[in-house]
Amino acid sequence: MATAPASPQTIALMLESDEPGGAEVFLLNCALELRARGHAVVPVLPLGKTGWLGARFAEHGFEAETFEIHSVYDRRFLGKLEGDLRRRGTTVIHSHEFAMAVYGTVVARRLGVRHVVTHHANMWMTDKLRRRIALRWAIRNADATVAVSEDYRQHLIRTLGPTAERVITILNGIPERIGDAAPVRQEFAIADDAVVVLAAGQLSERKGHAVLIRAVQRIRAEGCTRPLRVLIAGEGPDEAKLRALITECGVAESVQLIGTRLDIPNLLAASHILAMPSIWEGLPLAVLEGMLAGCAVIGSRISGIPEAVRDGVDGLLTPAGDVPALAGALRRLLEDRPLRERMGAAARDRAQAEFHIARMMDKYERLYFGR
């Protein structure tokens, strides 16, 4: 679905983290789509962290530039970044999140190139005065600043004031990737009549995995015997706590932590429901991927999730952290197959129409070209 650009650009995609996560996957998806449109892409990634994103870029044949930041305002880093991007012939810088928004603005001004910034709903980004001052400056001096949901745009306006009214909203988009359910069903010995729920995201409190585990415990206690498998993909600081909670709740036969996975399309193909019980979010790619794969969604009614999921149409939305409400939604979709299938089909239709990566990148390309 990619369209040929009027004039190919060399676009630097810059991010300060490289662990498995939404912003990181967004960056890789953008790079692949931009290359398909005829642009050259320069990934700019941190050195000496997890290496996860750098490895993904290398697998796809991209040559990344790496960096280290040693202080709040690191002149050596700025000089290296300017030199690297000049050497690569960069014509557009697309920065992501706080540090790259600020440093990218400085370097773009030095190079005389366009600068676009995307913020992925980091709620800590505005918690300190010095960060708010730096962000206001970056917003005023970047060519365009984007929030991935209208909810997060409004958060920036509330915390940064009138300067943030310049921020625009571009909802996330994703590529369509066809998966194969068979390897997943075989790996996890999933029965033919089992309903599969996939939850994907960092194992941390804000993702709400504990709420999902307790919701499974609740429906079992209420007598729901429908065969159910919940696969939680990801890694993070709460892994040990979540494993202990699964044991404590007595749901080990239904809920499994499966670690970081590179076969998300296969996992989605094997799933009927995508769960996103987060405490806060931007517009999570996992929700959009689940919708495009035809999964009904159970999500929290927070942040950008309601901008994608229409409650009662594409899935069911519940208050964040509300175990009884989540349990009720889960049981409803478990026990009502026609409803589950109808919502999955509606979710797929909406994602194809509104959240395909080609639609999103058309909008970003216009920003790159200053249109």
Task: Describe it.
It is a single chain. The chain has 371 residues and is of the alpha/beta class. It has two domains: 10-175 and 357-368, Glycogen Phosphorylase B (Rossmann fold, 3-Layer(aba) Sandwich), CATH 3.40.50.2000; 181-354, Glycogen Phosphorylase B (Rossmann fold, 3-Layer(aba) Sandwich). Helix content is 45%, strand content 17%. The chain has helices spanning 22-36, 52-59, 75-87, 97-111, 129-141, 150-160, 181-187, 209-221, 239-249, 264-269, 285-292, 305-308, 323-335, 337-354, 357-368; strands spanning 10-15, 40-46, 65-67, 92-96, 114-119, 144-147, 168-169, 195-200, 228-233, 255-259, 273-276, 296-300, 315-318. A seven-stranded parallel beta sheet has the order 3-2-1-4-5-6-7, with helices on both faces. Helix 3 packs across helix 4. The protein is elongated. The model is unreliable at 1-5 (pLDDT under 50).
CATH topology-level fold name of the largest domain: Rossmann fold
- Give Rg in angstroms: 21 Å
Let me know the CATH homologous superfamily of the largest domain.
Glycogen Phosphorylase B
Shape: elongated
CATH class wording of the largest domain: Alpha Beta
Architecture (CATH level 2) name of the largest domain: 3-Layer(aba) Sandwich
Largest sheet: 7 strands, parallel
Q: What is the CA-CA span between the terminal residues?
A: 21 Å
Q: Supply the number of helical segments.
A: 15
Overall pLDDT: 93
Strand content: 15-25%
Number of strands: 13
Helix fraction, binned, reads 40-55%
Give the number of domains: 2
* Contiguous runs where pLDDT drops below 50 for at least 5 residues: 1-5
